[in-house]
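Students often ask why we bother encoding 3D structure as a string. The short answer is that it lets us treat folding as translation between two languages. Here is a chain of 148 residues written in the first language.
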Amino acid sequence: MTYQEKKSIVSLISAILIFGIYCFYKYPLHPNGGLKSLETFRYWGSFVLTLLLFSIVAHIIISIVFNIVFRITTGEKEPAFADELDKLIDLKANRNSYFVFIIGFLLAMGSLVIFQPSQAMFIILIISGFISDVTGSVTKLYHYRKGV
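And here it is in the second language, the structure alphabet:
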């Protein structure tokens, strides 16, 4: 298995674990007030912002640990350059990831149009962000395994 495949697998697993652990931690803190209360908007705003920060920090730490473990176990360095295949795979993964997020964004805005609670919009946005992250990792793994 190549470095890029291992990195994609670690990225996929870490995205799932980060999102799952964060949601498990934040769910009990959900306010019990009405759907339109200011506390509910404050909760969802803080949920999204802290999820972004937590996710970025966790991905950086996991990437550093992965590179250290990879170097210790194989004795190889991380590839210092990206060839045309790597760039093409990254572009395809980004395209698929953005496509999934845009569909989720449109669904979230559509939920407001059909008079769903504002919480539905936040939940759809958060889930579409998670699914787009997973989609990018799965796309990279698929193309490194099967080719372009």
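Translate back mentally: The longest helix spans residues 38-74. Keep this in mind for the problem set.
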